[in-house]
Amino acid sequence: MPFTPLLPDKFQHRSGHPEEADDLRLASSQTSLEARLAQAPHDTTTLIELSEVLFRRGRLRASSHPLLAAASRLPRNAPLIVSLTQRLVANGEILAARACLDLLEEAPAPPADLLAAQAHLRFMIGDLAKALERIQLALHAGADSPGEHHMHALLLQFSGRIDEAEAVLERCLARWPQFGDAVTVLVNLRKQRPGANRLDRIDKQLRQIPHETTDTDRGFVRAEFEYARFKTLDDLGQNGEAWEALSRCNAIMRSLNPYDAAAEEAVTAALLNMPATPAPPGPARPPGPVPIFVVGMPRSGTTLLERILSSHSLVASAGEIIDFWRQLHWVADVAPAQSAGLLEIIRRSGNVDYRELGQRYLKQTQWRAQGRAYYIDKLPANIQMLSFIRRALPHAPILHMVRDPMDTCFSNYKALFGNISSYSYDLTALAHYHAQYMRQAQHWHSTMPGAMLDVGYEALVQGTEATVSRVLAHCGLAVEEGCFRPERNAAPVATPSSAQVRESIHVRGLGQWRRYAQQLEPLRLALEAPQAALAFPM
Fold first, then answer.
1. pLDDT tens digit sequence for 332-351
2. Residue 352: C-alpha distances to residues 142, 302, 325, 332, 333 (Å)
3. How many of the other CB atoms lie within 10 Å of CB of 225?
4. Phi, psi (degrees; rounded to nearest 5) at 428
5. Keywords for this entry (predicted)?
6. How far is CA 270 from CA 1, 6, 275, 339, 341, in A?
């Protein structure tokens, strides 16, 4: 869901940059597959294989054509349709992927594994209500793996059904006591309290997991239980022991996910040196719903702002979608390859067809508005995309969430993002990452004045009415009372803070880092270093 807050793993599962010897082999495979298609032009398996070869040769745009050809003549073969849908999603062909999923729902008496596959794919494209429906059907049909129960619990949580999610996770841990994914979600569902917590069970499992292990999976599980220990002790106010558990958790995660400072700096430098390209001429507002982009550092309050906005009668939430990244890669014809892919896109930025980018993004996302006039694309990492977004979608409002650096960084440090966001597991890396973000945000303000509106977290929670009114006016929306009561918003929310944002607006998030001021002193000093001293209004 790094600066590169790059794309989630689900978007980077393949490499599109083969070595020369590999490319020769792939070219030979392409010739053979094209010959097969000349004899059987509608063979779905061959079309999928050809798309995969083209993708691996770095030809992302061309790799979509076989997939779309296959999608236009779908076979009555459910596993093959699932495989095709996975690739359509990765290529940014979301409308075609949805059509495939709709067809799969017509399958008579589908087996559990097919229903679970549909749930995963619906989850991937952010269709949470459908994903929940499918995973419940899968479980009813006999699906019974830890991962399937975990997905069920997550989707219940995202839908605000906290008691049901808690019951599912408790049953999971009763059957699989060392299922770390379940324990991390469970402790985050609500504040842990004396006499109503799972600390003894967490400690029991930690005693059974070796401190030192060369087994990556076991190491990750230990980190998850250390995180659960931290969250419990933190809620109980036992700060000393809580910090020790968090430090152990993050030490493991650092070893599994080293932070690449050089790559982050290279991307920031490239963004800051992009040649200026004016937005394409055209209508000020294309037909159809308008996207509103919410950007900033992760854990800066973007989800709260999204919930406030999506409480408006004209606004829907699309969630943390990666569609703009997908379409930018497609239009630039650059296969995803972490920071190297983004650097190549920046190198080609002068030749990108921004009108095509905007049209393609709108075509693949406007369904998310659910009949409303606006929809929110809330991916914090889109702070890197400002120049691209402004050129492709000059009519789209962009809101930049700004929060006190110490609160933001501590909130990142005490979150467990999994095997992404490597910056978040080390205080020095956090300060460096935050500095890259600040350099980018300041650059956009200086080179594109007015391109984005800064929204201070402190102002949002302390002066809600004035701040929300200013945000709504920036988006061209009239003030509605519901925007001041986001806790009444029943729409699903798929972020780590999904439980907290169902509460009324509060100020408890201000200054939380001060409980650990002594331990966080190195972070404070690093953030105050000259290279990090870029200020924004709070």
1. 999 998 899 999 999 999 99
2. 48, 29, 13, 6, 9
3. 25
4. -65, -45
5. Transferase
6. 22, 15, 10, 11, 12
First to last CA, the chain: 25
Tokens 């996770």 found at: 169
534 three-class SS: coil
For the whole prediction, is pTM greater than 0.70?
yes
pLDDT at 421: 93
- Give phi and psi for 377, each to the nearest 5: -100, 100
Rg over alpha carbons for the chain, rounded to the nearest Å, is 23
Query: Residue 305 above 60 pLDDT?
Result: yes
Structure-token match 């060392």, residue found: 178
DSSP assignment letter at 315: E
Unique residue bearing structure tokens 């080179």 = 447
- From CA 407, how far away is CA 283, in angstroms rounded? 41
User: With the C-alpha atoms ordered 180, 183, 188, 189, is the resulting torsion angle positive or negative?
Assistant: positive
d(CA 438, CA 530): 12
Name the token pair of 131. 């994903």
pLDDT at res. 20: 74
CA–CA gap between residue 267 and residue 433 (Å, rounded): 11
pLDDT at 530: 65
Instruction: Say which residues have a Cβ less than 8 Å from residue 174's Cβ, sequence separation at least 6.
Output: none
User: How far is it, in rounded angstroms, from Cα 145 to Cα 407?
Assistant: 38
pLDDT digits (tens, 9 = 90+) for 110-140: 999 999 999 999 999 999 999 999 999 999 9
Q: Would the pLDDT of 157 be above 70?
A: yes
Other C-beta atoms closer than 10 Å to the C-beta of 412 total: 20
Pairwise CA distance, residues 121 & 134, whole Å: 10
What is the CA angle 224-228-231, rounded to 5? 135
Confidence label for 278 from pLDDT (cuts 50, 70 and 90) = low
Q: Kindly list the distances between the CA atom of residue 361 and the CA atoms of 34, 338, 391, in Å, as whole numbers in the listed order.
A: 30, 21, 12
Task: Please give the C-alpha separations between residue 264 and each of 116, 284, 395, in angstroms, as whole numbers.
Answer: 37, 34, 29
Residue 220: both structure tokens together: 């990750």
